[in-house]
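Researcher: Quick test of sequence recovery. Tokens follow.
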């Protein structure tokens, strides 16, 4: 038996791997035929043809180092060229042309719990950040509960006293907190929530529409619309059903730990890296035209496999959306979702979705084709890949949890 490491190195006792029969695994990700309703991404309007995966080789340029457990990097969307780096321990730093600012943009270290997978986990800038100064963070507070807050910034400094807590979600365990926050092309804020932790989703949160754990949430945080809190988009999938058994913030469910997700900035398609339990890691895909309500299967399924292993598949499999890619723990231990490249500096990467593995350091590329998807290993690294990042120009970065940020090049 071997121990399956999770994002941010969780206590090993919770994640003892399950033995499976020889020959049932693959050392590389396997493309899974997606459901007919979401078989192809929205066609792009670009004239740039993706380079075949077999011809892509990656190179990594060190941008900055010396960070304390960095988890994320992002531009602010204001055209300033700044890159913001989030540390698990509670600080956010600005890089100007690769030079780290002398003082932190934000310091939440006194308000954040950091044991296990807890910490300052996510950062998203409002679409109108350039004029409003509003940004949003996802962190676990000193009680260990997920906190979604809005703050304002002026220049290179966040106004800590401006914090407005929009949402607090109780966490029963210290792991599987999710943590990604991002604005979709619709202007709404999406929030990735893990199943609440321990192992195997003992509370059944992934399939329970009466709790926010194990979900992707979608809320309206426009102050002009939401007032002092937030509003529910009227087209969220469970608004019509309503009632206490179906929480209206839910956009999608059946997720174990959607640590990193992203929207294709050209098509609006959504890509989710959902961290697996003992055997399988997965990449989920939601097409741009989705009305929400997808059920990605956890904890009935781990990727395309019933959970627990060797249990009988449910009689009705229609509600469950299978991933577009899965891989087992011979290929990696903890998937880190990435981005589709839409920048101009690396035309050879255009249209390629990059994702990786926290434990193994491998980076793969995924492309859509006329018949589905093609996947290929692009690079082996010694990075602990806690996240990928995207700047205002669409250039991509990889974040090494050990303390560094690298820009991704194609050679």
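Model:
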């Amino acid at each position: 038996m071997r121990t399956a490491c999770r994002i941010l190195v969780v206590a090993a006792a919770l994640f003892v791997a399950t033995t499976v029969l020889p020959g049932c695994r693959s050392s590389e990700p396997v493309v899974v035929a997606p459901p007919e309703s979401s078989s192809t991404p929205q066609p792009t309007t670009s004239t740039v043809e993706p380079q075949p995966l077999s011809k892509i080789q990656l190179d990594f340029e060190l941008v900055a180092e010396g960070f304390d457990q960095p988890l994320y990097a992002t531009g602010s969307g204001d055209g300033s060229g700044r890159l913001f780096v989030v540390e698990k321990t509670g600080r956010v730093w600005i890089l100007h042309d690769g030079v780290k600012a002398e003082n932190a943009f934000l310091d939440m270290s006194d308000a954040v719990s950091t044991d296990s997978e807890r910490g300052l986990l996510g950062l998203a800038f409002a679409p109108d950040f350039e004029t409003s100064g509003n940004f949003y963070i996802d962190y676990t507070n000193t009680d260990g509960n997920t906190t979604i807050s809005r703050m304002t910034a002026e220049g290179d400094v966040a106004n800590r006293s401006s914090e407005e807590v929009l949402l607090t979600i109780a966490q029963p365990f210290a792991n599987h907190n999710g943590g990604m926050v991002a604005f979709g092309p619709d202007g709404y804020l999406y929030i990735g929530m893990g199943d609440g932790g321990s192992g195997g989703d003992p509370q059944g949160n992934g399939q329970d529409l009466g709790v926010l754990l194990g979900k992707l949430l979608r809320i309206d945080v426009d102050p002009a619309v939401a007032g002092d809190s937030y509003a529910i988009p009227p087209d969220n999938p469970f608004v019509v059903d309503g009632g206490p058994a179906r929480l209206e913030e839910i956009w999608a469910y059946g997720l174990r730990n959607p640590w990193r997700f992203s929207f294709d900035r050209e098509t609006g398609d959504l890509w989710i890296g959902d961290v697996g339990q003992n055997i399988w890691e997965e990449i989920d895909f939601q097409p741009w035209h989705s009305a929400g309500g997808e059920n990605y299967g956890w904890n009935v399924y781990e990727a395309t496999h019933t959970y627990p292993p060797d249990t009988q598949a449910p009689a009705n499999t229609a509600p469950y959306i299978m991933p577009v890619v899965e891989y087992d723990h011979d290929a990696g231990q903890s998937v880190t979702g990435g981005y589709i490249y839409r920048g101009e500096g690396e035309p050879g990467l255009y249209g390629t979705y990059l994702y990786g593995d926290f434990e193994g350091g491998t980076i793969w590329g995924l492309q859509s084709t006329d018949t589905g998807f093609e996947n290929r290993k692009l690079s082996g690294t010694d990075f602990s890949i806690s996240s990928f990042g995207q700047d205002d120009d669409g250039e991509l970065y990889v974040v090494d949890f050990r303390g560094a940020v690298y820009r991704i090049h194609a050679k």
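Residues 129-132 form the longest helix (4 residues).
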